[in-house]
Specification:
The protein is an alpha/beta fold and about 240 residues long. The protein has 7 helices and 11 strands. It has a 7-stranded mixed beta sheet, sandwiched between helices. The chain is globular, with a radius of gyration of 18 Å. The relative contact order is 0.16.
């Protein structure tokens, strides 16, 4: 079940406004071009920002997400009509053979159990053509990103057209590595409504991620630094064996 922050329609509607700078996606678009990809499946596509970016660049795109509220926003964006939207996870994808699969925005960290992660990789290998690529990012646990997820460091205030002023912040509620749980709070000033959502992420080491890819019959070609957060994240590029 998706976290409430993704599957609550009111929250999904303001998701992009709360995270307007998506320059982090430029690196993924560049990788798609490096790979000569003509078809892409974007797992955990959310509100479809990257899927639409790919589609508007002329690629054949499938966007998958388990949160219907996010997909409802995605379907209304320019370029969305040419995209195949799938309400579900990687295992729910129909038969296909794409050149590239992507997981942006640290989607890889939402898979908490080893079995769940292994099933996701197996499902992706099924839909990626032989020699096709998988690219995703994951935070480096030693950088302890969660130390900045406090009400002060994560606080944001945004005025959204047609909605009004919104305040939001995060607060870590439990650190039991490799798992970190935090609560997101969103306040809608127009009607004084406060909504909360709890999320848990798994922080895998570089070695653990590499081993899981090899077990799923992917070959790790390169581990890059995330250009928008240098030193804080790994970007894994692997190919289907």
């Amino acid at each position: 079940m998706p976290d409430r922050i993704f599957d609550e329609p009111r929250l999904a509607a303001v998701y992009d406004a709360l995270d307007p700078d998506r320059s982090d996606l430029d690196a993924y678009l560049s990788i798609a071009r490096e790979q000569g990809a003509r078809s892409v499946v974007d797992i955990g596509c959310g509100t479809g920002t990257f899927a639409c970016l790919l589609a508007n660049a002329g690629l054949e795109v499938v966007g998958a997400d388990p949160a219907e509220a996010m997909l409802a926003v995605a379907r209304c964006k320019p370029g969305a009509a040419s995209i195949q939207w799938v309400h579900g996870v990687a295992a729910d994808l129909p038969a296909m053979q794409v050149d590239l699969a992507t997981m942006t925005g640290n989607v890889a960290q939402v898979f908490l159990g080893d079995e769940e992660w292994a099933k996701t990789l197996a499902a992706l290998r099924r839909v990626i053509r032989p020699g096709g690529a998988l690219v995703f990012e994951t935070r480096r646990p030693e950088r302890q990103a969660w130390l900045e997820w406090d009400p002060v460091g994560s606080y944001a205030r945004v005025d959204v057209e047609g909605v009004g002023r919104i305040e939001t912040w995060n607060e870590v509620t439990n650190v039991s590595l490799p798992f970190v749980t935090f609560r997101s709070t969103i306040v809608f000033h127009a009607d004084h409504t406060t909504l909360t959502s709890q999320s848990t992420l798994r922080f895998r080491t570089r070695e653990q991620v590499a081993a899981s890819l090899e077990a799923a019959r992917f070959r790790v070609e390169e581990v890059r630094d995330a250009p928008d957060r240098p030193g804080n994240e790994y970007v894994f590029l692997a190919t289907s064996c």
